[in-house]
Amino acid sequence: MKIFISYKIPKQISGGGNQFLKSFRKMCIKNKCHASYPEEADICLFNSHQYALDTFLLKKRKKNLILIHRIDGPMRLYNDLTDKRDLIVNTINQYFADGSVFQSEWSKLHNGRMGLKIKPFNTVIKNAPDGKIFNAENRIPFSMDRKIRLVCASWSHNWKKGFEVYQWLDRNLNYSKYELTFIGNSPVRFSNIRQIGPLSSQALSDEFKRNDIFITASQKDPCSNVLIEAMHCGLPCVALRDGGHPEIIANGGELFETADQIPYLLEKICNDYASYQGRIELETMEEVWGQYFAFMECIYDKMQQREYSPKRITIAGAVKLLSVLLWSRVYPVFRNRTEKLTGLRETTQRP
């Protein structure tokens, strides 16, 4: 069984989805089931709303190609309710996908609530990082005899990545006891938080290993890759009780609902650090890849036994997808022009 990944994986520093698919491709190559071209493949893995038209054309070229859809979001919750990407996801999932992979139970539940038709073949599989890079080897030991080192990170500068909470920490955290580093892209400059730009995977791992506790305040995040990477490096976490965070953290950290709860939770983890660190339980990339492969193999075997036929392109499906893709391109232009005329454009800064 050969797997083709319908996704152009960038070589430069990029976000969580890119990092996961890069590691997934490495595992396919390692297990000798990677297809460089769709004509060689039995299974095609495609991601969220990205390259939807390319995936549609692949299906047109090879009608018996099984399409597995890795679903993100809902993006309307993370971004705003006018975001058209979920409409692309819902359309291609309904008309073309043979199976769906959700990154968390939270994502499956909320995508269903927001209109996604759940496929008969579906599963929930969390993300995992490249274990050769993100691991707890050679990390600096925790000590109460120095400042406690905290770290947070975000590739995106979207405010819902937790920047209001980070601003609160910048103003209120006890910096005689703690030091806090932010890694990535931020819409604001901090006064007390040390800021460094986006890092390569290896540099990010090295930075995590110099720290003690990871903090994330991202909202409606289905399965935060950077949270998983930090915990694989041995960092207990303090996270917002939202999205897929509770499923990832389990007993390896604490959850907060308001920013003013964070200092107490940090103190709690510091006083029992080894216990929290020992309770971090996350699946390796090998285990996650194995779950994907088993899910794909199940559908493939049913096709071989003629218990299932891959979805075929219908005229209705093609028209629906093309109209959605066109609208998703036209709408942002229309919205931007309307905001300019009415003065309703949201500012990039918040108080």
The poorly predicted ranges are 338-351
Q: Fill in the CATH topology of the largest domain.
A: Rossmann fold
Secondary-structure content class:
alpha/beta
Q: What sort of overall outline do the alpha carbons produce when their principal axes are compared?
A: globular
User: How many strands, which pairing sense, and closed or not: the largest β-sheet?
Assistant: 6 strands, parallel
Quickly name the level 1 CATH class of the largest domain: Alpha Beta
* Sequence of secondary-structure elements: EHEHEHHEHEEHEEHEHEHEHHHH
Distance between the termini: 54 Å
**What Rg, in angstroms, do the CA atoms define?**
21 Å
Provide the β-strand percentage band.
5-15%
Q: Walk across the major sheet and give the strand order.
A: 8-7-6-9-10-11
Report the CATH architecture of the largest domain. Answer: 3-Layer(aba) Sandwich
Enumerate how many helices there are, as a single number. 13
Q: Which percent bin holds the helix content?
A: 40-55%
